[in-house]
Putative NADH-flavin reductase
Amino acid sequence: MIITIFGASGKIGRLLTEQALGKGYIMKAYVHNLQEIGLSHPNLEIVEGTIHDYYKIKQAIAGSNAVISTMEPSKSFKKKGYPVFEAHRHIIMAMERLNIKRFITIASPVIQSGKDAKSAVTIVPKLFISLFRHRTYLEFVAIGHMIKKSTLDWTIVRYLYPTNKPHKGKIKVTSGKQKINFAVSRADIAKFILDQVESREYIHCMPIIGN
């Protein structure tokens, strides 16, 4: 199976790429700079391009069985525009034209699901980010709306507070009804995302995960 990943040079993306290569997947990593990812493997192809280059993104996706994004909106107040939204727009457009269905991306519970129950895990992130990181909030919400309108077999993996702690292997999934810790290790986030590549359990769903 071939997977194209966007955001492979980030903390979660790098862990996910390493885990996928360890499981024997063929990986295509789309990065802004060839030196960013710092990985080398016979089953890893690195494609250099910008998030604004639709044709390069389409080239990176072509021939893949699944596409993963571990890109997140910037938390910086100085950032302008919505670059991660733009990247998702190009990814979705390319996947639909190439008839590639499986798409997995990450988000905060800021993106709401109709299945969410009212609880701290679904309410607090939305209040905090909408008040203190409004541009980030708007970008997250726009990405969510766009994905839900697509024809893809999508999954949006939501989490609250990622840490650099070691992989625990104990991941809880909630929609707000079950209590979970806000913190979750990036290694566990990566594993959960990778597990969804060949699973249909969370198609058109937005699981919130924690340790």
Notes: Helices lie at 11-22, 54-61, 83-98, 120-132, 134-149, 186-195. The chain has six helices and ten strands.
